Amino acid sequence: LWELTPQARNQMRYARALAYENMDKPEAAAPLWSAIYNEKLLPPTQMSNAAFYLARSAERRRDLESAYYVGQDALQRLIGVTQTDPENADVEKIKTQLVSLLDIAESSGVLAQALEYAQQYLQYVNEGSLDQQSVIYRMARIHKKRGDTAEWLRILEDLSGKYPDSVFGKTAKSELASY
Questions:
Q1: Which of 23, 106, 152, 171 could pair with 114 as two cysteines, CB 3.0-4.6 Å apart?
Q2: Which of 177, 111, 174 is nearest to 144 (CA)?
Q3: Rounded to whole angstroms, how far apart are CA atoms 162 and 133?
Q4: For 26-78, what is each residue's pLDDT tens digit?
């Protein structure tokens, strides 16, 4: 056998970790992602993927603190790739990471931060899409949790008016009727 350079060793780890992810064996990939992430020797696109999968691993383990901090790093790296290497941008991973951070912030009671992630998510969805409507509806719920009834009502009225035939428009109308 030959001795691999640290960068070559990380490329091997990366290929194996990605293969495990593709075979739906994320638990086998997690230690590889961790090693890659900690050594930080791969190109930005691969490092953004390593951070993304490592954050997902922490979330599956319910280690929300790690999931949050690594998730924030993953988000910044993924967004950085969209700016420096648009061909390798992965908007779906950005959206997934934003929803993950939104979930963590909301469940931790950091509602202002949750609203910021929701607002950021809206930049990556099409106007009128179910993705957009679901996040707007979720924002309404978060405003209600914060005690901002006026904003909750405004968002529900907006949803029910703009999208009366969608599931979110109908749900908003139903909530308004029962208020």
A1: 106
A2: 111
A3: 10
A4: 999 999 999 999 988 899 999 999 999 999 999 999 999 999 999 999 999 99
CA distance 178 to 119: 27
Whole-number Å distance between alpha carbons of 99 and 97: 5
Tokens representing 138? 């979720």
d(CA 64, CA 55): 9
DSSP state of 127: T
Record the pTM.
0.91
- Which residue shows structure tokens 């993304």? 52
Distance CA 89, CA 76 (A): 12
| Residues listed for the chain | 179
